[in-house]
Structure formats: C-alpha cells, structure tokens
Amino acid sequence: MEWDLSDNSLGTSMDDTPDFSESSQSKSSTTNNISENEFLCHCCYDILVNPTTLTCGHNFCRHCLALWWESSHKNECPECREKWEGFPKINILLRDATDKLFSDVVQRRRAEIQANPKISRSLLAFQRYGDNLGRSRTNQHKGAGFFFSGVLTALTCVAVMVMVYHWSSGVVEQQDLLISKPVSHWTTEEVVSWLEHLGPWAQLYREPFQQENVNGRLLLMLGDEELLKPPYSIENQAHRRAVLAELDRVKTLGVKPPQNLWEYKAANTGKSLFLLYALKRSPRLTLFYLYLFDYSETFLPFLHTCCPSITHIDESVESSFLSTQLEPSWRQWGEFLVKYLLLPYQLIAEFAWDWLAVHYWTSRFIIVNAMLLSVLEGCALWRLWTRDRIRTLPRKMWNHLWKMLSQGFAFALLWPFVPQFVCNCFFYWALYFSPIINIDLVVQQLMHPETQAL
Question: Is 220 exposed, middle or buried (0-12, 13-18, 19+ CB in 10 A)?
C-alpha cells in the first residue's frame, strides 16, 4: 500500500515536472528565427563589429563609419544623409548581442580590422576628432585654445583699425587723381608729383619743372633733346632715360600708371579683387593667366620684383627702374619657374616685401598670409602622401582647374553689377582677415593633423 502511494506520488511529480527539452527547443527555434540581415552593416554588408548608432537610428560598423567620415568630409549618415549630432558612440547592447550570436564571425572580422593599417589610421583619426569635439566643449576657454583665441582677437582688432584708417584717410583718394585724370589736364603741381614718384633721384629736377610751369600738355611735348638742354639740364643719361621711359608709359596709357597697391586698385577695381582672391586660391593658375593676358603691365614687373636680375654695386636706382621694363634673362626665368612650381606663395611674399616701405601694415599682412598658405599647402600634400592617396593628385588638380575656370568666368560676368562699396568690403576682408582665419587653420593642422579629412 505504501509502495503504491509512493509510486502514485512519484508518477504525479513526474507528470507535473516542466518539459525542459521542449522549452530548450522553443528557445532554440526563437533564436534561429532571428535573421542575420538584422545585424548587417549597410556599408560593408557583413556582421556589425563595434556597432555605432547615429542620431537617425541607423547602425554601422565603427570602422566603416570612420572610413566614410574620412572620405566624404561630412558628418552625416551614409544611408539617409541625415547629419548626426555630437560624436557617435558604440551601442553597447547591440555589440553584446552580436558578440554572443556571431562570436566566430566577429572575432574573425576584428582580427582583419586590426591587421589593416589603413583602417587603424582612420579609426584613430575618427576617435581624435571626437576627442577634440569634447575638448572644445568643455575646455573652450582654457589652455592653448584661450591663448590662440586671444591672439586672433588682437589680430582682428588690428585688421579693423587698418581698414578704418584706409577708409577714413584721404591718402588713397589723393593718389587716385593722377591715375584717373588725363595727362593733358594735369596741373604743374600734379606734374611735379608724378616726377617725385619716379624715385629720390628725381628731386634734383623738381625746381626746373616748377619754374617753367610744366603742365600736362607741355609734359607730353618733352623729348630727349628738351630734357638735355636748359632749363631742365638732365645731363645724367640714366636719369634722362628713366624719365623718358615713364613718359612713354604715360603717353600710352593717357594717365599716370599705377605704382603701388592702392593706385593699382583704384585703376583696376575688378581686376585687383579678382587677383586678390585668385592668388590666394590658386597662385599658379593666376600667374599663368597674367602671363597670357597681362604680360607687360602686371606680369613683367612682378617677375622683375620677385626675381631681380644680377645688379652691380655701382648700378644706380634709376637703372634698376629701367630694368623692370626689359625682358627677363634666362637666369631670371629659371629662378621664377622653380619658385612658381614649388613655392608660389613665396613669390607673393617677395613682391609684398618690395613694397614694405610704401605699405607698412598691408605688406606684413600679405607676407604672413603667404607663409600660412604655404604651410597649408604643404600639410595637404603631406596628408596625400602619408595616406597613400598621392595618385589622386592629378584628379584633384583637374577638379581644381575646372572649379577655378568656372568661378572666374562667373566672376567676369557678374562683376559689372557689383557695387563699389561691396567690392571694397570683399577686398579689405580678403586682404586683412584671411591671415587671421588661416592662423586658426594652421594651428589645427599642426596640433591634430590626423583629424583633417581630405
């Protein structure tokens, strides 16, 4: 009897016990119902490794997102193109799920990622980019950032003061008179002012021109014989040749030729703004344009200034003035082409250095900007070389050429409709504020070169 009861209770307990095998099969079937497509990266179409979730909700492998960020230069989703906010982080829950469900695949892919140096560099650059974002938010008023922001603020104040000086002073307007007024209408004072612009040696002949009341019409009738005889008595042959050479330019142009930056800007408003932006964006193409279309007036003086001919110690100032109108020698062409190909911004700096006595602050801004642009160009070439993308240089050069030609053509069409005030704003902005902006770009390049995507 007791045996029967125990047997019945055992049977009852066995019947009431849950079927673990059935539960295990149900769990297994549930796991098998999960499709691998739900854990695929939409960039590489493989199992997600370190899945990173963007603000739009899409998930990608972290190295795929880093490669996309490096190649596209954009902080946007590769699938829906929605920009992400902040810096994307790894989805820990999704990472643990993929590690458990597809452990073999994930381990294999991680080993492949670590063995690929290109992917490792991209991940490092991407992470440093995120670190910089976080650092800029928390420490934007501390350390080096505060120091450079103070420097940029001081330079901005200097640039504003220089702009106010040029707009408020009447120096530029006084220089504009002779380059816009016909020679035949010049007064005696204006003729003397034109003569003084030839150089310090011209001071010797100021009194004869004043005593004879030489105006514009008399100036146009002067020749070699008149200058040699009294009352002018310019017996120095080099002095006489310099005066006649400049007088020939005046007769050809009908007005006084520009001899400094402000006079050139007043005489060629549209061209000066075009050259200012074009030399900054593409100095090689701009100099080639001047060689083709503005050889004698702009390119030739530029070349003689940057690559002067060999001068003797006893050569006078007026002789060097005449040499700027001659054809360059082979030595000058060789020096110019080397600088043109390797250091084009150095040519601009040397040209500004020659004008240092006339444009004190402006020349310094141009020289600093040329140095900064040279550094930025060197950093860009270094990134191409270190990231094995130097073979893309011809394609980038072609794209740059097409962009410059299209923008130049659009500028030529729209320029006649731009008001003079807007022109001056763009001109002075590019002249004085470009160095301040480029200082910040150079600091970013030198401190964190890996974070700069090409």
Answer: middle
Residue 169 pLDDT exceeds 60: no
Neighbours of 400 (CB within 10 A): 14
221 and 188 co-located in one domain: yes
Q: Do 277 and 414 share a domain, yes or no?
A: yes
Q: How far is CA 88 from CA 49, 384, 390, in A?
A: 14, 26, 30
pLDDT grade, residue 137 (50/70/90)? low
Rounded CA gap, 150 and 306, in Å? 34
The domain tally of the chain equals 3
Burial (CB count <10 Å: 0-12, 13-18, 19+), residue 256 = buried
- Measured CA to CA, the distance from residue 85 to residue 76 in angstroms comes to 9
The pTM for the full model equals 0.58
Domain boundary among 200, 231, 253: 253
Contact 63, 119 (CB under 8 A): yes
Residue 150 lies inside a defined structural domain of this protein: no
The span from the CA of 398 to the CA of 393, in Å, is 9
**Mean pLDDT throughout 372-401?**
82
Burial annotation 405-435 (CB, 10 A radius, 16+ → b, else e) = eeebeeeeeeeeeeeeeebbeebbeebbbbb
Q: For residue range 262-297, list pLDDT tens digits in order.
A: 778 777 777 888 888 888 888 999 999 889 888 887
Residue 246 near residue 191, CB atoms below 8 Å: no
442, containing H or E segment: helix 434-447
Report the C-alpha gap between 257 and 239 in whole angstroms: 19
- Structural domain including 226 reads 182-253
200 and 122 within one domain:
no
| Model confidence band, residue 150 (pLDDT cutoffs 50, 70, 90) | low
181 pLDDT tier (thresholds 50, 70, 90)? confident
In tens, the pLDDT along 24-52 reads 444 444 445 567 778 888 888 888 898 99
